[in-house]
């Protein structure tokens, strides 16, 4: 099968630190190639891949990026998997998935795909499909013996509930390491900075070996988001490291953790109690690792997407409109019949 993967122009593939969408694109591309499929990847400059062909965007303008894709996309592609949205909204005459890695898919596209059934139901009105994120298990270190610190990993914004993780740490008396990008300085200065000290530390964004070590050695990871999380990649990254992760019953969190219900919490007090009685109340390290491997690996994610690709192509589940933006742009970009530009 010949498959086009369309990444964003924000972060290269694969990302060095933060970049959930680009990591999904990377895992999927690599596994598809390993299984013998041809993959044409469009991504930000600086991307590295084993794709059959990799095209790096030459402009920051979305219209020019669309033209770039139209010019370079092979004519015999079987399906397009758009993680960006610019191709799907142009409605090309090729089966095209538009995957939302956050909330709803905007615009009238052929085949919307979401990262959880919760998002499909709430924002997609049950139109389209849900395919869970997957991670490469080998990218995460496993340790059965844990250290005593708690870990928060994510963007420092109000919706991620860093201030609630601080509350849990204070209730338990344990050290808390906060790692992630600082996206809201006012929130940081008012809700986080006053609590920093010997027991509560902010270490900035992390990736690579440092991130793996933090996840694998943590006593417990605190996932304190207060908004409707579309999926929650940190949940499965923590479990892949053999580390219990406690999350509030918001968004897709109960769906992702449905097989480990003891990890779900209603309040910071309940979360603190589970931290204090982890051995008695929470799953052991090997069970956490097994849960992530059997439900959320890159192998399973690839299986699900290949099944969806085949279903779409075999059953003609895509609809192409006449006079699409894709065809309009292609007509402009095509040379004159005599081979000279008009």
From TrEMBL:
- State the Pfam families in the record: Glycos_transf_1
Q: Which residues form a coiled coil?
A: none
**Which molecular function GO terms apply here?**
glycosyltransferase activity
Q: Where is the Glycosyl transferase family domain?
A: 143-258
Question: Which SUPFAM superfamilies does this UniProt record tie to the protein?
Answer: UDP-Glycosyltransferase/glycogen phosphorylase
What does the UniProt keyword field contain?
Answer: Transferase
Signal sequence residues = none
Q: Which Gene3D superfamilies is this protein grouped with?
A: Glycogen Phosphorylase B (3.40.50.2000)
Question: Domain of life here?
Answer: Bacteria
State the PANTHER family in the record.
SULFOQUINOVOSYL TRANSFERASE SQD2
Q: What is this protein called?
A: Glycosyltransferase family 4 protein
Q: Which organism is it from?
A: Paenibacillus montanisoli
